[in-house]
Design brief:
heterodimer, B: 5-stranded mixed beta sheet, 9 helices, elongated
Chain lengths: 614, 339
């Protein structure tokens, strides 16, 4: 096959469809994840409006169940995960001094699989109704549902999940293999560390979900009986498989947020992270323990006191490394010079909020008391404190922090602060009363409640809070539009950063580093600033830079799986075959067509350096 | 355990917390106003864990507030703060103290977890045995020793330990009486039966609210039931009159004819009838229609006319009955009272 180098410059839409550049894929993840975040948020607000007063009849019965299922599923798989991947893509290669991820092509495959999976799942709204069995899709509710909602759920998430797995593997390899000279493991920024552990969790947790989805798919599409007790199946198989994936998933989500907070707190306190090695160890330990606690989601399932007790103690143990992190953050600020930028405000809001979510987590780890909390609004309050108060505040913090690096503009700080206060106050208004609702006997996932049960006031407050959160999010989008329309290009190092990503020019050159930097310690850029250099020392002379070519194949491959998934829902074997045929064809083409990428010549790089572009 | 609680230095904190939490919610629904032994012990566990957690929160918040106030960047100060790597003593401290706190919490946790599942199975020596079966969207209650099956409303004697076997006829539900005990799932399939026990408390003539706590379909929110705790005497009478029920109603006989023709294949009345729908013995004495609507004739008619409008997704068909027939059946049902 052809071995000569060729490079086609593409522009406009085609550039985005074919890109394998981690910076552009990061933006794609952020846009798609942000879009699904808006949809999931809208679903949440609709549910809260239904619950604003007792016996409301706006969204009842099945429709409400569709909303709650799609809210959870969308937020976890289509909003939170992609936004995490957005930052991992945008930041990690820069933080470790790499020119791209290890497998740029696989990176693009990962994004497009997620995107098409998400689109497939959301099409269910227009094609006979969304899934209604909860994001947990417990059998036999999920297997006995008559409409196609759950089929969209299982096939859409199966496709999106494959993308996530590909992404996780890619970042594992990237972080292990692509670090710049001197960037030892124990000099890696905490965000990279957290993403490394998260990628490891993805590697071990997502296959469980894939297997579970295959079982569920076989039940739905081919009438198998894995979960049907009348045919010798067992419903508990699904619950176990789901939570063997589902609990590590919680840490997959929260660890990158821990990483972001560590970066932001350290930068805006102008201090190195307190107890860096303890932080790394705590991250790894949380990831490890995260695999041995899944039964705490199943305390009321009836597994017996021995099982419940073991998992209770294991769950409590997670509080210890998490507590270490909290204190390390506080002591990072101790003696520092705290600057309250918007990014820092979100981080400052994160810490107490997450502590509150953490302590209710320990309370939930007590099985005998969990019999009261379980599946009540107390649990809803707990996991929103952890996921919204933890992950989403972390993601917002990261957005304001890295926005200049990703989009070459600094987000407006005034709007940012309005965004923070509306969202933060709204968040506590929404979810704090829900602790009480749960303790006062309100089960979760109910579309209404009768009056006269002392549940009215707290529900009302909760809905008002949700509207505040909605308003906060709208301010964020106004901010993005305002910032995009301003002409002021960001400084290359607007926050007085400490890590490598702030050592590069704006905009980041497509090859990232003209010369791979030499890393001389933790907080590589800060070390150079203290040494009086202010910039990184190169580890290599200027030379040719090898770049990968863009390709439309990842898009086509994912489209093929999308078509196959769609056809399977309607049991149309011919079209399903065509879809899978497209997948195989793209795989074949990818294998048979050698693409050696192209080189950026030394003269071009030198010109870039001279012109201040690299 | 109790002794330790009362003697320990947590007592005052406990009292304050209890004051704060008490009076929270509906006394027939709230877990914070426990009425039976199990709920009471669960409430104590909540208090222990909340106390420890509030201690943690206070320490973190005070420290945090101090740091945020003290170490803000001052205008014009461009010095670089001292870069601290860590502090072994401090790090050891905030690892060991949480471990100790968790051990304090873990001991009662494990104790109670074993206690609540010990001796839960219904047996001949138990005081009262009960078989609970969840259906979309109603509850079936079988008293195996008394040989009677009722629905939606449990009648139980006061101060009694109840041994419960739980299962489901369709999807997973979860049986929850917040005032008396935490929930346990009802799983479909013989291999996945569950057992629990609870105590009915010391109050008589109270109606506690029960809930389904596991998403089970469109009308999950409406799958309420009631627990009526009565004196032991009243309970005996109730059992006797339930067993003597013969399907005769104080209403005219026309309603009974329509009922027997259209409804009896699913609903049991007296000693006859099917069991795909809830048993309707003593329907006239119940607290609610279909578990949720206020108990009056208008609502009985509303339900029979279009069950889907009240509880979407339930399995009762819309029957082809004239308005007069529905009226007669409603009268008949409301006349079904136990002596």
């Amino acid at each position: 096959m052809a071995t000569h180098e060729s490079h086609k410059k593409r522009s406009g839409l085609m550039d985005w469809l074919t890109t394998v550049d981690h910076k552009k894929i990061g933006i794609l993840y952020l846009l798609a994840g942000g879009f699904f975040f808006l949809i999931g948020g809208l679903e949440a607000i609709l549910m809260r409006i239904q619950l604003i007063k007792p016996e409301n009849d706006l969204f009842t019965g099945e429709l409400f169940n569709q909303l709650l299922t799609m809210h959870g599923t969308t937020m976890i798989f289509l909003a939170a995960m992609p936004m995490i991947f957005a930052y991992m893509n945008a930041v990690i290669p820069l933080q470790i001094g790499a020119r791209d991820v290890a497998f740029p092509y696989v990176n693009a495959v990962g994004f497009w699989l997620f995107f098409f999976g998400g689109v497939l799942l959301n099409l269910s709204w227009f094609l006979g109704g969304a899934p209604e069995a909860g994001w947990t899709a417990y059998a036999p509710l999920s297997t006995s549902a008559q409409d196609t909602g759950v089929d969209f759920y299982v096939l859409g998430l199966q496709i999106a999940g494959a993308g996530t797995l590909a992404g996780g593997i890619n970042f594992l390899v990237t972080i292990i293999n692509m670090r710049a000279p001197g960037m030892t493991f124990m000099r890696m920024p905490l965000f990279t560390w957290a993403s490394f552990v998260t990628s490891g969790l993805i590697l071990f947790a997502f296959p469980a979900l894939t297997v579970g989805f295959f079982l569920l798919m076989f039940e739905r599409v081919f009438d198998a009986n894995f979960f049907n007790p009348e045919m010798g199946g067992n419903i508990l198989i699904w619950e176990h498989i789901f939570w063997i994936f589902g609990h590590p998933e919680v840490y997959i989500l929260i660890l990158p947020a821990f990483g972001i907070i560590s970066e932001v707190v350290s930068t805006f306190s102008n201090k190195r992270l307190f107890g860096y090695s303890a932080m790394v160890f705590a991250t790894v330990l949380i990831g490890f323990l995260g695999f041995m606690v899944w039964v705490h989601h199943m305390f009321t399932v009836g597994l017996g006191p021995v099982t419940n007790s073991i998992f209770a103690v294991a769950t409590m143990a997670i509080a210890i490394p998490t507590g270490v992190k909290i204190f390390n953050w506080i002591f990072t600020m101790w003696g520092g010079q705290i600057r309250f930028t918007t990014a820092m405000l979100f981080a400052v809001g994160f810490i107490p909020t997450f502590v509150m979510g953490g302590v209710t987590g320990v309370m939930l780890a007590v099985p005998a008391a969990d019999y009261q909390y379980h599946d009540s609004y107390f649990v809803v309050a707990h996991f929103h404190y952890v996921i919204v108060g933890g992950l989403i505040l972390g993601l917002f913090s990261g957005l304001y922090y890295w926005y200049p690096r990703i989009f070459n503009r600094v987000l407006n700080e005034t709007l940012g602060k309005i965004n923070f206060w509306l969202f933060f106050i709204g968040f506590h208004l929404t979810f704090f009363p829900q602790h009480w609702l749960g303790l006062m006997g309100m089960p979760r996932r109910v579309f209404t409640y009768m009056s006269g049960q002392h549940l009215d006031e707290a529900n009302f407050v909760s809905t008002i809070g949700a509207l505040f959160m909605g308003a906060g999010t709208i301010v964020l989008f106004i901010n993005i539009i305002v910032t995009a329309s301003s002409k002021k290009v960001a400084d290359k190092d607007p926050w007085d950063g400490r890590t490598l990503e702030w050592s590069m020019p704006v905009p980041t050159p497509e090859y990232n580093f003209a010369q791979t930097p030499l890393v001389r310690g933790l907080d590589a850029l800060f070390v150079e600033k203290m040494a009086g250099n202010g910039k990184m020392t190169p580890a290599e002379p200027v030379g040719e830079i090898h770049m990968p070519n863009g390709s439309i194949l990842p898009f086509v491959l994912s489209l093929g799986l999308f078509i196959a998934g769609f056809a399977l829902i309607y049991a149309n074997w011919i079209i399903a075959g065509v879809g899978l045929g497209i997948v195989l064809l793209t795989m074949f083409l990818r294998s048979i067509l050698d693409d050696h990428g192209y080189h950026i010549h030394k003269e071009e790089v030198e010109a870039d350096i001279k012109g201040g572009r690299a | 355990m109790r002794k330790w609680l009362h003697k320990g230095r947590f007592v005052s904190l406990f009292a304050m917390l209890a004051l704060l939490l008490m009076g929270c919610g509906d006394p027939t629904l709230s877990t914070l106003i426990p009425q039976g032994e199990v709920a009471d012990k669960q409430y104590q566990l909540m208090l222990i864990s909340i106390s420890i957690m509030i201690l943690v929160l206070v320490v973190v918040f005070v420290l945090y507030a101090f740091v945020l106030l003290k170490f803000r960047k001052k205008k014009g100060d461009n010095s670089t703060p001292k870069q601290v790597e860590g502090n072994h003593m401090l790090e050891l401290l905030w690892t060991v103290i949480p471990i100790l706190l968790l051990i304090i919490l873990a001991v009662p946790t494990v104790m109670r977890t074993f206690e609540f599942s010990a001796d839960a199975k219904p047996s001949s020596k138990g005081e009262l045995s009960l078989k609970v079966t969840g259906h979309q969207y109603w509850w079936e209650f079988e008293y195996p020793k008394e040989e009677l099956i009722t629905s939606q409303e449990l009648v139980l004697p006061v101060n009694t330990k109840v041994h419960v076997e739980l299962s489901s006829a369709d999807v997973i539900h979860s049986f929850w009486i917040p005032s008396l005990a935490g929930k346990t799932d009802t799983n479909p399939g013989d291999k996945s039966k569950n057992y629990m026990w609870f105590d009915t408390g010391s109050k008589t003539d109270v109606v506690y609210k029960g809930k389904c706590a596991e998403l089970c379909g469109a009308s999950h929110a409406l799958m309420d039931f009631k627990v009526r705790v009565v004196s032991k005497e009243d309970y005996k009478n109730w059992v006797a009159s339930f067993k003597a029920a013969d399907g005769k109603s104080s209403a005219n006989a026309n309603g009974q004819q329509v009922f027997e023709k259209n409804c009896l294949s699913c609903h049991a009345v007296g000693q006859n009838g099917g069991n795909t729908g809830p048993s309707l013995n003593g329907f006239g004495d119940k607290d609610r229609v279909a578990g949720i609507l206020a108990h009056n004739k208008g609502n009985v008619k509303k339900w029979i006319k279009n069950p889907q409008a009240v509880k979407p997704g339930n399995n009762m068909p819309k029957l082809n009955l004239s308005d007069e027939e529905i009226d007669a059946v409603a009268d008949y049902l409301l006349g079904l009272k136990l002596k």
